[in-house]
Amino acid sequence: MLSFAISRLLRAGLTILFVMTFAFVVLRLSGDPALLIMSVDAPPEAIAAFRESWGLNQPIWDQYLAYIGHALTGDFGKSMRDGRPAIALVMERVPATLAITLPALALKIGLGIPAGIYAALHRNSMADRLTMAASVAGFTMPSFVLALLLVLVFAVQLGWLPASGSNGLSSAILPVLTLGTGGAAIMARFTRSAMLEVLGQPYIRAASAKGVTWRTVVTHHALPNAAIPTVTIVGFMVGSLVAGAVVVESVFSWPGIGRLLVSAVANRDLAVVQCILMVIAAWMVMANLAVDLAYGWLDPRVRGTAAAH
Fold this sequence. Notes:
309 residues
């Protein structure tokens, strides 16, 4: 298990390094931030001084080595807009993002998994058909469309909830519903498929033939074996929490990482964009790492395969 965990940690580190490198190169090749921040009407001497002060006049390879060297010490650069450390700006927004993403994750798991299990245990029933119909509608609808519909109904028509902002608990309800609905639909479909596959296995029929109660068959045989594919989708949802909040935070004017990313991209604030992308990548990589380790714990065959390689 130790070698399995070490191999996954090394892979996670390489993935984060690749994302940092890719973001650095693409942002540097996509345009000159000095022209946007200083404007094209600024004197050439002022633009040149700006580039020199931020190291933009150096070859891209030298800029990259300096960026990686500073990042290893925890220095991810400063915002070109206000001069504050980029990591400080990002960390200020993390609590706001977690305030809507964690409840949304709980909604996805708490609603999606029981719905999927119930649909699988009542296959082809009216409840199953209704659950799957709602699931299809939930995960095919774009998040911004769902957000606008929720605003139209609950904020405009009924006036129950605020349409935007972050003024108290009521302001978080619509963003949480927007983030959680689609995920719950996906979770229900995956859980149903995993349960149906397990319920069709010979050992399930053998346990039933031996006189084991159906409740025991489901709780002690079906659910544990259906857990592995379900863990996959849970890990994916945990990893995509921050990235998935970009659109929702923009629609609801929620002051989180997603909204900061949109403004930083518009302002060509390189250090802030790079820092946000690194945080998102690290979050997703750690979620996938947790899934891999959960695989190794749930199924020893996974550990054996990793050790063999």
